[in-house]
């Protein structure tokens, strides 16, 4: 019989109970999956990711340089916008008192419940 004071290593306990170490099992399954992905030939991206090597060197600083602007060769007519006919935006608030409060005209729920109880 074993007690708490007995100092037996985990390896020995696993050997006696014939239980496999979970870390070893997970590692083995990961390698099996990697081998399975490496053997696939159906063109999925898993093999490309497995074999991918990051670029070496430093990236250039600043925005990408794509070269001179390209001319439109699609043959579609360009969209011509006319000047605005309305001074104020369509979705602007009706009064400035609503705009000053983040809740507009609404009150917190608790105040409304107190108001209803008082009636």
TrEMBL record:
Residues 92-101 have a biased composition (Polar residues). It comes from Pararge aegeria aegeria. The gene is jg24331. This is Jg24331 protein. Residues 54-119 are annotated as: Disordered. Residues 73-87, 107-119 have a biased composition (Basic and acidic residues).
